[in-house]
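User: Regulator of G-protein signaling 5-like, Seriola lalandi dorsalis:
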Amino acid sequence: MCKGLSSLPSSCLEKAKDLRVKLSHLAETHHKHRVQDGKTLQDLETLLNSKSGLEAFRGFLRSEFSEENLEFWLACEDYRFSPSNLQKIKASSMFSQFINADAQQEVNLDGETRDALLSAIDSPCADTFMKAQQRIYSLMAKDSFPRFLRSHHCMEAIKAF
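Assistant: Predicted structure for Regulator of G-protein signaling 5-like:
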């Protein structure tokens, strides 16, 4: 404990700790419920479905040098809605860009998901990347999205709603 604080009565220190906890909770609650024009940024899905929200999130991820998850998720969305005659070409491109060990934008997938993708490379179908996309979405929702909500990039997204 620093010398200055040790001279304070313990009741004062306890009150300060309690106040800090309450202020942290209040700030977090306020941050989660910022509203502009009756709209609120509640979840990752809402963000990804907004062009300006998506761009703000991309800018945030770029500032953290971690935009590969978003780029992979978007590539999966594009792949899902591609005609079947383009799926093999797109799948191959996605493997080289995101899945292979030497990929420029390799995403963090567990071994089981990666192995399932590698076994499907020769005959991809519409849902080839579904499980991997869900894993990356979950990773973004649990990791990068909460950090985004605490960033200045979030205000850009809220203003754009």
